[in-house]
Amino acid sequence: MIYLDYSANTPVDPAVLEAFCKAEQTYIGNPNSTHCAGRTACEEMARVTDHIAGLLGVEPAGIIYTSGASESNNLAIKGIAQASRSTGRHMISTVLEHASVGGTLTALQQQGWEVDLLDIQRDGTIDLEQLGDLLRKDTILVSVCAVDSELGTVQPIRQITEILKDFPNCRLHVDATQAIGKTELVMDGVDTMSIAPHKFYGLNGSGLLLKKSSVIIEPQIHGGSSTTLYRSGTPALALAVSIEKALQLTLTQQEERIRCVRQLNEYLKTALLHYPSVRINSPEGAVPHILNLSVQGLKGTVFQRVLSERGVCVSVKSACSAEGTPSKAVFAVSGDRKNALSSWRVSLSHLTTREELDEFLQVFDQCYKELVP
Questions:
Q1: Per-residue pLDDT for 320 more than 70?
Q2: What is the CATH number of domain 1-7+253-369?
Q3: Which class is domain 12-248?
Q4: Which helix H or strand E contains 114, and what residues bound it?
Q5: Whole-model pTM above 0.85?
């Protein structure tokens, strides 16, 4: 098998799994319990939270443990909307967002909130001038992904925060699911941020929502003590330990890993562009981990299926998107619906080898010759 879908899920790092298992076996008490085993677990939970806060440059009180980015996005967007409903009911987002953001916004629309979607420019970034035009006194939220999962586009978060300085009642939520370990993480001016460890060699079923101390959100899960007022439930200490380890490894090795992936990306892109029907959709400036392409005249689902039959794993759109529809991201940058239907994504890792890419290119060549008229 050749796995080229690291933006959907990454294998857990052995050191992360080891840290999880060790914590699970060592700290048997409930961190909420007042006996000695509970106090020991509570102290370890506080240590882990402090360390994660230090790694990310945030306050420990602003760390909310969740089950993953989908819950984090729901908690941030619904929590901000409900806490700010007396201020306004207008929100701004983009077509590039993950389904957990888009679905949450749709649910809020049905409850009376108003949502505007920003245009996407040819380079995959949002239209900053349009953002300024759309902002109103009753705008309470802007939600933008740091890195688009289909194209790899890095959004101009710093410029967005500058624009929002003139709108003190508007919060900025950033879905950083695809950003950790792939690009610089912008925290200044961001009110809430979602993080998914399974995207950077952590464990599925764990997540983080980072929240500024000044930001008020309404909880979506009530009842029971936890590490925070904003998300009830027994603290999952071992999962927190696994997040700590995954973050530490990813951030300390980030530059080296990016350099490795960039070389792989250039090698693959150069080889693919020799095929006349291949079109690269990822814009310049995208993170090197994501390479979106189209084979003109062939639906992406067809090419993906044929590759999968031969042991190659790539994706069409994000893993959480509806099947049989064109990629919104690719359509936004190309304006070509057929091209958007033909698109699919290769996502790379520092674990990807040149030998794997050579084998993929051999399989791709066979499929191309069989399928392209």
A1: no
A2: 3.90.1150.10
A3: alpha beta
A4: strand 114-118
A5: yes
